[in-house]
């Protein structure tokens, strides 16, 4: 199994809603990532979990809350978002975490969750 | 200065030609370099990575790295219309948390 599965594919939410994005991989990867991508822009790193511990938080607003329940799952909890948070949210995984070998840091991306905040 | 710089294009080449995509980076200590391809509406997928100076070939793709010049490139030989996509250069920094930083991407069009 060489896939990263993200759900839901599309999400529309109001500014007062609470929702979650989910990501799952069964490749035995020990690092998982959330990236945000706006149209015609590159992916922008949000969070990195390495061995189920949060290792990088790119000063993301607290209305985004990541969670890594185990080595295969990664969630992104959303609360009180703004319309400018509308974007494609990409989950990725790599064999090992930051600081370890080139091949081990190849990112495998999920298909993304397209979020629209009204 | 952006950490990873690419010409946004679009780069247009005829079918069968060589497409040359370029990338420069600012962190001299960076060790690993990646090329990802992203089709419109899809997520990025790895083409290849390189970490030693010189060339690395994989089928129609060749990555070239010159750490002294802080420059990495991707050559696509015998370009096909199916190669039309945005090509993202990514660099793994060796400082500040060892993050993978993406360039803005170069849009490639291969004309049949």
Detailed description of the structure:
The complex is a heterodimer of chains A (118) and B (112). Chain A is mainly beta. Helices cover 0% and strands 54% of the residues of chain A. Chain A contains no helices and 11 strands. In chain A, the strands form 2 sheets. In chain A, strands 2, 4, 5, 6, 9, 10 and 11 form a 7-stranded mixed beta sheet that branches. Chain A has a 4-stranded antiparallel beta sheet with strand order 1-3-8-7, with no helix packed on it. In chain B, strands 2, 4, 5, 9, 10 and 11 form a 6-stranded mixed beta sheet that branches. Chain B has a 5-stranded antiparallel beta sheet with strand order 1-3-8-7-6, with no helix packed on it. Chain B has no helices and 11 strands. Chain B is globular and about 45 Å long. The chains are: A mainly beta (118), B mainly beta (112). Chain A binds chain B through residues 41-45, 48, 55-56, 58, 88, 90, 98-99, 101-103, 105-112, and chain B through 31-32, 34, 36, 42-46, 49-51, 88, 90, 92, 97-105.
State mean pLDDT of chain B (0 to 100 scale): 93
Straight-line N-to-C gap of chain A: 36 Å
Overall strand count of chain A: 11
Indicate the proportion of strand residues of chain A: over 45%
- Principal-axis shape of chain B: globular
* β-strand number of chain B: 11
Low-confidence residue ranges of chain A: none
Largest sheet of chain B: 6 strands, mixed
Overall geometric form of chain A: globular
Helix fraction of chain B?
Answer: under 10%
Specify the structural class of chain B. mainly beta
In short:
The complex is a heterodimer of chains A (118) and B (112). With 118 residues, chain A is mainly β.
Keywords:
A: 118 residues, 4-stranded antiparallel sheet, globular, B: 112 residues, mainly beta, 6-stranded mixed sheet, 5-stranded antiparallel sheet
Topology, pairings included?
The complex is a heterodimer of chains A (118) and B (112).
Chain A: E1 4-7, E2 10-13, E3 18-25, E4 31-37, E5 44-50, E6 53-57, E7 64-70, E8 73-79, E9 87-94, E10 108-109, E11 113-117
Parallel strand pairs in A: 2-11
Antiparallel strand pairs in A: 1-3, 3-8, 4-5, 4-9, 5-6, 7-8, 9-10, 9-11
Chain B: E1 4-6, E2 11-14, E3 19-25, E4 32-38, E5 45-50, E6 54-58, E7 61-66, E8 71-76, E9 85-92, E10 100-102, E11 106-111
Parallel strand pairs in B: 2-11
Antiparallel strand pairs in B: 1-3, 3-8, 4-5, 4-9, 6-7, 7-8, 9-10, 9-11
């Amino acid at each position: 199994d060489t896939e990263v599965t993200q759900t839901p594919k599309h999400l529309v939410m109001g500014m007062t809603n609470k929702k979650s994005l989910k990501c799952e991989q069964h490749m035995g990867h020990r690092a998982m990532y959330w990236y945000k991508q706006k149209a015609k822009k590159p992916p922008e790193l949000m969070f990195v979990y390495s061995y189920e511990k949060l290792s990088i938080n790119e000063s993301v607003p607290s209305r985004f809350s990541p969670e890594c329940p185990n080595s295969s799952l990664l969630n992104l909890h959303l609360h009180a978002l703004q319309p400018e948070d509308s974007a494609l949210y990409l989950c990725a995984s790599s064999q090992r975490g930051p600081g370890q070998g080139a091949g081990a840091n190849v990112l495998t991306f999920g298909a993304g969750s397209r979020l629209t905040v009204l | 200065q952006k950490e990873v710089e690419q010409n946004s294009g679009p780069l247009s080449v005829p079918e069968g030609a060589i497409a040359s995509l370029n990338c420069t980076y600012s962190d001299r200590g960076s060790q690993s370099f990646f090329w990802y391809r992203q089709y419109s509406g899809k997520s990025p997928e790895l083409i290849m990575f390189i970490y030693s100076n010189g060339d690395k070939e994989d089928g129609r793709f060749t990555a070239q790295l010159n750490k002294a010049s802080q420059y990495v490139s991707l050559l696509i030989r015998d370009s096909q219309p199916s190669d039309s996509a945005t090509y993202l250069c990514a660099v793994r920094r060796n400082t500040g948390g060892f993050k993978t930083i993406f360039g803005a991407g170069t849009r490639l069009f291969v004309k049949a």
